[in-house]
Design goal:
This is Peptidase S9 prolyl oligopeptidase catalytic domain-containing protein. Keywords: Hydrolase. Helix content is 16%, strand content 38%. By secondary structure, the protein is an alpha+beta fold. The chain has a domain of 225 residues: Rossmann fold (3-Layer(aba) Sandwich).
Length: 646
């Protein structure tokens, strides 16, 4: 196999995570940047100041400052690799109290001194794609494993409080509701929930209002149901207004505001693709989100009921911001003007920065990736625009070696979702971070955002519904033609590859577009019919993207078979490499095995590589390195990259 040296360096790239700011705005805690388990703290008001580290006994997954005190909540991995241990640390980093919970702690909302609300996935719960599509493990594996349809595991809300050196916890009874997102103020919480506890239920959400969090029995009321998806519910400081984002799948969308006393709903005018939102006070919100191939930041004015909620300031930049779910997110300071985030852009690896809500610009506060920043390869990143056959304007990014001139080998790298996107960054993270290494190795790499992508509003994002692998694939192919016409790409040395939905589009291209010399399918879908009943998101995701699909009718089954690569294979298909995690529950391994088997039966060069212990994306460093080397060898062996057959 052919190694990719730059990829080896990217495997060690540090991504600061879980930014949380104390109530005085003088201590910013974060994780994910040290070789050892630890929390990093810095004073963001002193750029360049030395960071403090608090060593931990296990890897942290989440940190949050307590409300009304200088104590820090920390969630760490337990014995079986799940985030099950909760600790409260004193202002000097010593442990005040700790406890172990069953399941997996997915979120924590501080309520008051020594008090917090947890969102916990039961043992056996299916995890979503952001959690690698793995089931939540318990203390001992079941032998045999037994699942009951009338006793499915939930995502529960648990109230925790520290007293006398111990953490006391009690589950809040939501009935059959499973909680996907939550925010709370005092005794009141607002929850994105579903009555289907699998990730499929996330695609059919209801917004709940829960009162009496610490009472003997909380009251639960439905606020809003939708065919879209919901994220980031946020209660105003007084608890009588709610803001929530509505979008598609991986939510990037519009902001709704609900006045609880009057029941009035408003949608913020002239704002789309928001991914994070929060209250500055009772009448103002801040927001962050995507904007085409970059990001946006700003404020929202929320006057009294009956008046329009409007954006009062916004700025954009060709860059990427990262929160805990990979979407743009902010930690906003008490002054209501300054915020902190993880920021990256071409030539600048991810670091913590400060920014102003009102004016463009960032100030870098950390330098965890200094070596890569100083030794970044000479790769150009540029914005590209082209027109699809039906006249739709499509945008994307092009990465190419600065010292080379075209025509160069072309690799189309397709993102997942489909409601996701490529945004300007140092090393685009999806698909095992292969975009930058492949460009450094001499290819021109196209990162297209076809219809269905985030960044250009809901009208663009919803165009793929009912037409997967159709017009969106045409958008991608038109991008390849555009680069050939510009003289940048060699039409006889092209490859297509992608992960998740990008893997599906790559499989679709492999079986229908002999123009390619090679394809790589990572965690892809080949059979939408089987997906309905075997995927953890089956029955929810497919209802959104294949609305005519129905297992109970011949026409409905045909609607799922039609866009499935498995049923379109011929001997003229493109040589295809499959990379898949053995434990992936979002796109189960059978999705790769079926298409690989059919290609092999027809004599099409193909290879299936299955990585043990891995889910929807590869995380073990050696697996990531192995996969990158196999991709490089596959592209060279099939005449795309230099050094192999003609």
């Amino acid at each position: 196999m052919t190694p990719l040296p730059l990829h080896d360096a990217l495997v060690e790239l540090a991504y600061p995570a879980s930014l949380t700011l104390d109530q005085d705005g003088r201590r910013l805690a974060l994780i994910g940047v040290g070789a050892d388990p630890e929390v990093h703290l810095l004073d963001p008001t002193l750029p360049g100041g030395a960071a403090t580290t608090w060593p931990l006994s296990a890897e942290p997954t989440l940190v949050r400052w307590s409300v009304g005190s200088a104590e820090l909540w920390v969630v760490t991995l337990g014995e079986h690799g799940e985030p099950t241990r909760l600790s409260l640390l004193a202002p000097d980093g010593s442990t005040i109290a700790t406890t172990q919970l069953a399941g997996a702690i997915e979120d924590l909302v501080p309520l008051g001194p020594g008090s917090a609300l947890l969102r916990v996935a039961d043992v056996g719960s299916e995890r979503d794609g952001m959690h690698l599509g793995l089931r939540v493990r318990g203390t001992d594996p079941d032998d045999p494993e037994v699942r009951r349809g009338d006793a499915l595991p939930l995502r529960r809300l648990v109230h925790v409080a520290v007293a006398d050196g111990a953490v006391h916890h009690a589950a809040i009874d939501l009935g059959r509701w499973s909680a996907w997102d939550v925010h709370a103020v005092g005794e009141r919480a607002v929850v994105v929930a579903s009555q289907d506890p699998a990730p499929a239920g996330y695609y059919r959400p209801t917004l709940l209002l829960v009162d009496g969090l610490t009472s003997e029995r909380a009251t639960v009321r439905e606020l809003y149901r939708t065919d879209g998806q919901l994220a980031r519910p946020r209660l105003a400081p007084t608890g009588d207004r709610v803001a929530v984002i509505e979008g598609q799948s991986i939510v990037s969308g519009v902001v709704h505001v609900h006045d609880l006393p009057t029941g009035a709903w408003r949608t913020v005018a002239d704002l789309d693709d928001a991914t994070d939102v929060g209250w500055l006070d009772e009448d103002r919100l801040w927001f962050a989100g995507w904007e085409d191939l970059g990001v946006q930041v700003g404020r929202i004015a929320v006057p009294g009921p009956g008046e329009a909620a409007t954006v009062t300031g916004r700025w954009t930049h060709l860059a990427s911001m990262h929160g805990d779910a990979g979407q743009p997110a902010l930690a906003v300071a008490p002054d209501g003007a300054t915020a902190y985030t993880v920021w990256e852009e071409p030539g600048q690896p991810p670091e913590v920065v400060s920014l102003c809500l009102d004016e463009p610009g960032t100030t870098r506060l950390t330098d965890h990736n200094a070596t890569l920043r100083k030794e970044a390869p000479e790769v150009l990143t540029e914005r590209a625009t082209w027109t699809s056959p039906d006249g739709t304007e499509v945008h994307g990014l092009v990465l190419r070696p600065a010292a080379a001139s075209g025509p160069l080998p072309l690799v189309l790298l397709l993102h997942g979702g489909p409601t996701w996107l490529w945004s300007a960054s140092f090393a685009p993270a999806e698909s095992n971070q292969l975009a930058l290494p492949l460009a450094a190795a001499g290819a021109v790499v196209l990162l297209p955002n076809p219809r269905g992508s985030s960044g250009r509003g809901q009208a663009y994002a919803t165009q793929v519904r009912g037409d997967t692998g159709g017009a969106d694939l045409a958008d991608v192919l038109a991008g390849a033609d555009h680069l050939v016409e510009r003289g940048l790409a060699d039409p006889d040395r092209t490859a297509v590859m992608g992960l998740s939905y990008g893997g599906y589009l790559s499989a679709q291209a492999a079986v229908t577009q002999p123009r390619f010399r090679a394809a790589v399918v990572m965690s892809g879908v080949s059979d939408w019919l089987g997906f309905v009943t075997t995927s953890a998101i089956g029955g929810g995701y497919d209802a959104v993207y294949h609305p005519a699909g129905d297992l109970g009718s011949a026409a409905g089954r045909d609607a799922l078979v039609g866009p499935s690569p498995l049923y379109r294979v011929t001997s003229s298909a493109v040589p295809t490499l499959f990379l898949h995690g053995a434990l992936d529950r979002i796109t189960p391994l059978a999705q790769a095995e079926q298409l690989f088997g059919e290609l092999a039966r027809l004599g099409v060069p193909s290879e299936l590589v299955v990585y043990p212990r891995e889910g929807h994306e590869l995380i073990e460093p050696e697996h990531r390195r192995d996969a990158a080397a196999r991709v490089a060898s596959w592209l060279r062996d099939h005449g795309v990259l230099d050094g192999t057959e003609d």
